[in-house]
# Entry
Amino acid sequence: MRNILPFRTVLNHSPPHWDQYPEWFVTICTDTPKVNSLCTHGVAEPLLGGIGEYHQNFKWFADIAVLMPDHIHLIISVSRMTTLSEIIRGFKRWSARSDFFSMDSLEETNLN
# Structure
């Protein structure tokens, strides 16, 4: 099977040394582009709840979250105690375990 995804350049996500809590613009896409998999009943509320729970647990500081049909836009800050990639990887792992936030699996899933 050939790879149909474009080659992506690895970006340096190191924050500047003078900024203790840098803000990042993050886009997280679904596996199915151009399909409304996030803005549906039973998916949008748990997804936004998960974003809020990450904020309440100080994993990130979310300034804004915009939910689109096939992706999420976030403006977040993370502590220097962790990296942006670790936080996003954890959120994606949680979302994958939740099967894109199906209600059955979400009731038993915790973000911690």
Summary: Residues 23-106 form a domain with the Alpha-Beta Plaits fold (CATH 3.30.70.1290). Helices lie at 44-56, 84-97, 103-106.
